[in-house]
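Example record

One chain of 141 residues, shown exactly as stored in the release files.
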Amino acid sequence: MQADLKIIKFIKKHHVLTLSVILPDNTPWACNAFYVFDEQLMCLYFLSELKTQHAKAMLVHPQVAGTISVNPKTIAQIQGIQFQAKATQLQNEQAKQAYGQYYQAFPFARVIKAPIWALQLQRVKMTSNLLGFAIKTYWDK
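Predicted structure tokens for this chain:
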């Protein structure tokens, strides 16, 4: 199912996500990461070294959640995405393709020697008060 164009436009417009994971000891953890969006695959790509808390967590519990949001000064400008996704450390050709997109968006990242991950979006809820107070748009894979 194709995602709503408002959702796609919002995700493409931004570049930082907040990722929530469950650590191997079953406690929660969150982090922020720069991402690029693969609209065709409905994936968010980001870099993370395997030694990070969130990478260790994703290897054990690949089901994750996250947000992409703006920081408005008024309630009328609230916009954001909440998502559920499946995290995968990419390898081989998939990694090569994702690195290409990531480095095009963030050329400085070429110096970071970290694995690239895909967050395959499973469910998205977008809130945008720009469309009307508490208006929600949903997408499910």
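Notes: The mean pLDDT is 92.
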